[in-house]
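Supplementary Methods. Inverse-folding protocol.

Structures were first reduced to a discrete structure-token string of length 492. This string, shown here, constituted the complete conditioning input.
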């Protein structure tokens, strides 16, 4: 039976969500008042005017005093007009400052358009909650399975150190490229509208203290509690430590651990893929909520966002990695790319590093001439923990969301936190389609950004996922050539 590919389903869901959201904005205007029986003591009248871009609430007391709340409208310049109105950026802010007024509006003042948009947004957040649900077990099983695939403890020597060193270096270079591009293009600042929640200030703290707090997070007091509380950096560090020592221990115990976590990882992949199948519906619901309340102008910056990601990926794949190939591995980047073309095309079409692994192994060994001793060690590990494209994408996406949320760039100390967290989060990203969405939650939490804003970029995630997965596989392949050259050089 004919079935559309997932990325086409997501695209259709996005388009439908945008169209429905535009339709809801057309019916998003309503004037009403609070029923007499619901008026609080001392209040004579409460009038609501709900429009897609602005909410006005006028409260008249029995003594004749009038208070006006304007939510979402343009704040007048200081001194331009003497108005007693209270200007608030979002309904969430109104709920914090005047909870009784906000509750009255939600019960009696919302238009049908806003009511349906709010309902769609709540349902769409269920999809994000499911991503939260699988994040911890997916990280643990993915990391332990990848490291356990190394084999015997004797293989954890210099080859392991060189491989990990290459992975960390290229991932960090990718993140730096992403940060550079997002600061140059500033895609989030080119939007005419900002998503809900933009009232939050940018919090900048002492850089040394911030970095030391990140270091402390890497050493959990209680790993089980860290998993229960969703402290992702603690989970990543403990999982790596557990897997490394399981390999060193070896024997029957290591086999049991490897078999157990391989089975658990396979189950988690099935669960995650089942959740990802709901992405078209989740995207549609989230897009309805965004467009109905923010308007189509919020998507003007998505074109700049995609351009920023693609330019950063192209620079890393066509400049940074080829230079490493040329001067470290002593290989021709063009010839090596031709040899790896089957794997790169498979990665692009499948958006799965794990799914592409058999093709990558075959291409590296049979077409690029890398020995099986190196490729069988480097590639399985790389498919789990070497995610250059994912790390770059997450850094760009989080700074893009921060620009939308705050209306300005994050300070340098927060950008460093993003870089370090993206580096560690990419290590825990499973090699399956859309795994970066799960890992991005880590970085958003690390810099205090609302995770629901992730819904803005989900609509274009599949296209960018295909691009970044190709970069992931290309980096793994280059790593094989680099590690083999270093091993050969030592032997000679």
């Amino acid at each position: 039976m004919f079935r559309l590919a997932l990325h086409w389903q997501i695209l259709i869901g996005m388009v439908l969500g945008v169209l429905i959201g535009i339709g809801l904005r057309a019916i998003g205007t309503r004037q009403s008042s609070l029923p007499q029986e619901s008026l609080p003591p001392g209040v004579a009248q409460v009038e609501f005017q709900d429009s897609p871009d602005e909410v006005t609430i006028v409260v008249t007391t029995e003594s004749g005093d009038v208070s006006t709340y304007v939510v979402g409208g343009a704040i007048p310049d200081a001194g331009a007009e003497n108005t007693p109105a209270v200007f608030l950026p979002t309904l969430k802010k109104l709920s914090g400052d005047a909870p009784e007024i906000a509750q009255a509006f939600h019960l009696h003042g919302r238009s049908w358009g806003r009511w349906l948009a709010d309902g769609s947004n709540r349902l769409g957040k269920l999809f994000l909650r499911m991503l939260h649900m699988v994040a911890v077990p997916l990280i643990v099983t993915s990391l332990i399975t990848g490291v356990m695939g190394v084999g015997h403890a004797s293989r954890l020597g210099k080859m392991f150190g060189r491989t990990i060193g290459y992975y960390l270096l290229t991932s960090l270079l990718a993140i730096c490229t992403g940060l550079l591009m997002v600061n140059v293009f500033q895609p989030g600042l080119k939007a005419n509208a900002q998503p809900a929640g933009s009232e939050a200030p940018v919090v900048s703290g002492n850089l040394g203290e911030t970095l030391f707090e990140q270091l402390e997070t890497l050493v959990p007091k209680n790993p089980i509690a860290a998993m229960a509380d969703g402290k992702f950096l603690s989970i990543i560090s403990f999982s790596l430590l557990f897997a490394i020592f399981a390999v060193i221990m070896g024997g029957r115990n290591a086999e049991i651990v490897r078999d157990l976590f391989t089975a658990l990882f396979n189950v988690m992949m099935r669960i995650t893929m089942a959740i990802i199948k709901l992405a078209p519906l989740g995207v549609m619901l989230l897009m309805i909520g965004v467009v109905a309340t923010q308007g189509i102008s919020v998507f003007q910056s998505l074109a700049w966002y995609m351009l920023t990601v693609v330019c950063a990926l192209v620079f890393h794949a066509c400049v940074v990695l080829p230079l490493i190939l040329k001067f470290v591995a002593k290989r021709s980047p063009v010839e090596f790319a031709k040899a790896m073309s089957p794997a790169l095309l498979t990665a692009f079409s499948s958006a799965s590093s794990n799914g592409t692994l058999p093709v990558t192994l075959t291409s590296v060994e049979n077409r690029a001439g890398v020995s099986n001793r190196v490729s069988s060690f480097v590639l399985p590990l790389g498919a789990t923990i070497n995610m250059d494209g994912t790390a770059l994408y997450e850094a760009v996406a989080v700074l893009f969301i921060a620009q939308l949320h705050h209306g300005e760039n994050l300070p340098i100390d927060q950008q460093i936190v993003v870089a370090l967290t993206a580096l560690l989060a990419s290590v825990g990203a499973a090699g399956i389609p859309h795994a970066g969405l799960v890992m991005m939650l880590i970085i958003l939490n690390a810099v205090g950004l609302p995770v629901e804003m992730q819904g803005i970029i989900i609509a274009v995630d599949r296209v960018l996922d295909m691009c970044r997965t190709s970069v992931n596989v290309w980096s793994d392949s280059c790593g094989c050539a680099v590690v083999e050259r270093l091993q050969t050089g030592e032997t000679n």
